[in-house]
Amino acid sequence: MKRKIIPRGTAPIIVILFVLITVIVIKISTLYEENKELKNQETRLLNIIESEQERQELIKERQEYMNKTDYIEEVAREMFGLIKENELLIVPQK
Q: What residues form the membrane-spanning segments (predicted)?
């Protein structure tokens, strides 16, 4: 009497399981790669956010400076040649 290694009717189940496991492994691999790409993108975006926050802080500081009278006086002197009371304007000879 011969013994069967695989009982009759289980071969299709084994094939189906093998196909399912293969599909799952491929999907996991794809998701792993996608996860790596998303982490890289997140790192890049966090760096961009950090640099933009620094830029925003510089703009805020510049804006605060531009609202001060020192800046207004500086611009008035440079652009319009204005001077304060009791100041002498010395113009170099050309």
A: 12-32
